[in-house]
Amino acid sequence: MQKKTTVEKATARKYPEPVVLVTTHNPKGGDNVMAVGWTTTVSYKPRMILVAIDDAAYTYELIRKTKEFVVAFPSVKMAKATLYAGSRHGHKIDKIRGAGLAVQKARKVKAPLLRDAVANFECKLVKIFQPGDCPMIVGRVVAAHENKDGKLKRLYYSYGKRFVLGGVRAE
Ligand SMILES: Cc1cc2nc3c(=O)[nH]c(=O)nc-3n(C[C@H](O)[C@H](O)[C@H](O)COP(=O)(O)O)c2cc1C
């Protein structure tokens, strides 16, 4: 039986949700990483992934500039790094280093793969559209990679007053 409630209260009950890490490349030097919860596959053939990225994010600036990015699915072991990547902007800091993330060269884009992620998808920008208050970025998958450890579990997150990922809490 359902009871009428507020959007906020209903939203609080829909977690846990997937979270990904989006990496980008700055042609003038430096790579960046951010956490994105608003993401889904939006086309099977050709494979396309959507990420909704706030226009204040450095990642948004770099995707518009380079027209490419990597979507990495973090493992449960990457909760702290994911919180780090998702709680500060990368305009002036090296978040990949700050988060302690190991990288690997991608095949078809300049943004890096995250070595310890469960899987990585290299994407080329297809379209940006904005039906609401957040830009929606669609990328075509041009290469895919999976962790050699087939038992590695991927990370999900909950939302309350604090983010909770893989048992790690953050203010
Ligand atoms: C679990 C989690 C999920 C997040 N999901 C999103 C999201 O879907 N879209 C978004 O714009 N920001 C999201 N954020 C916030 C960004 O990661 C944050 O604003 C980040 O500092 C942007 O980094 P950048 O400016 O270096 O690109 C999320 C943060 C966390 C911790």
Sum this structure up briefly.
The protein has helices spanning 7-12, 58-66, 79-85, 95-98; strands at 17-18, 20-25, 31-36, 39-43, 48-52, 68-73, 103-104, 113-114, 119-129, 136-146, 156-159, 163-165, 168-170. It is α+β, with helices and mostly antiparallel strands and 171 residues long.
Write structural notes for this entry.
This protein is an alpha+beta fold and 171 residues long. It has a single domain, classed as Pnp Oxidase, Chain A, CATH 2.30.110.10. 15% of the residues lie in helices and 39% in strands. It has helices spanning 7-12, 58-66, 79-85, 95-98; strands at residues 17-18, 20-25, 31-36, 39-43, 48-52, 68-73, 103-104, 113-114, 119-129, 136-146, 156-159, 163-165, 168-170. A 7-stranded antiparallel beta sheet has the order 3-2-6-9-10-5-4. It has a 4-stranded antiparallel beta sheet with strand order 1-11-12-13, with helices on one face. The protein is globular and about 50 Å long. The protein starts with 6 loop residues before the first helix and ends with a strand. The mean pLDDT is 93. The structure holds flavin mononucleotide. Flavin mononucleotide binds next to strand 3 and helix 2.
Low-confidence stretches: none
CATH architecture: Roll
Termini distance?
A: 34 Å
String of helices and strands: HEEEEEHEHHEEEEEEE
Mean pLDDT: 93
Whole-number tally of structural domains: 1
Helix content: 10-25%
Sheet-strand content, in percent, reads 35-45%
Number of helices: 4
- Strand order, largest beta sheet: 3-2-6-9-10-5-4
CATH topology: Pnp Oxidase, Chain A
